[in-house]
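re: that chain from earlier
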Amino acid sequence: MSNETGGTMSTNDPDHGGDGVALQEGDLPARFENPGIPEHQHRMADTDPKAAKRAERQVAFLFVLSMVGTLVMIVGYFAVKMDHDLGFIDYLNRLELSNKLLGIGMAISLLGIGVGAVHWAKTLMPDEERIDYRHLQRGSDEVRAEAVDMLATGVEESGFARRPLIRNTLIGAMALFPLPGLILFRDTGPLPGKYLATTFWKAGDRLMLDPEGGPIKASDMVLGSVAHVLPEGIEEAEHPLNEKAKAAVLLIRLEEDLLAPESLPGAHGGIVAYSKICTHMGCPVALYEQRTHHLLCPCHQSTFDLTQNCKVIFGPAKRALPQLAITVDDEGYLVAAAPFSEPTGPSYWERS
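^ sequence. v structure.
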């Protein structure tokens, strides 16, 4: 339609010359011509069988290169030994070599698959432009059958079925590519088995002050006092840091009549011992509010009530802190009466 200043406007309204119809003044044309799709330019591989064969070999070479990169990564991972008895400089040199082999191998593996797929699509797969008009989202059975036929045609035109060299090398590259990930994840450590469910504590172990060391007597624990303790002999464990991460315990004394009935069998004269490892994410629960008898985790504010057998009263933790049953030996020193009756720390997949 015309605007106030003259001239013309085109519209898609079918009642006013739709589909590009221009309502004009004077001798302007009634319709703009559709320029159509540009003439298709054939590639060398479309007209020259030798060029197509050469492109096929190039794609296969890239997929084989990807397989070589994957193998370099795997071999480099196992060939470079990271023994801890090496000198510090030698250890760093080996670590650098290992990282370079892993990085270069993964880069070649990814690059081979990616560039090979792009080169395949640009040189061998059909590149003609086609027009498909919009239709209802859910087509008829005939349209759906036609779509299946189009997919089958696409597979045929891609050459996946009739180019076994490309197909087989692609399958080989894709089959090898996940292996480094599986190896790396599997080699993060042995499966835990019962290791997470047990601690260094056993019946008769003296409670040793942490970090100063030395045993502690029940008479040393005055009302309201708090001590951080570990089991005797933990420094001689095969992996002392790992054991400390599970066995750390808070020792606290409060009025015995405040204790919940279920915590009394494991207490001694108002002295109770609970795991220091938060049952949410494993942070150290080290903040004690003497007036409220609450233990607070500083990481995510999970709060445990000592008077309710360390039940969770606030925060994301879902389980109470496990209690370590304690007693005294013949010399009056506090000792563990038994190991923890349940795993300490956060939940994990094998926990029952």
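The chain has seven helices and twelve strands.
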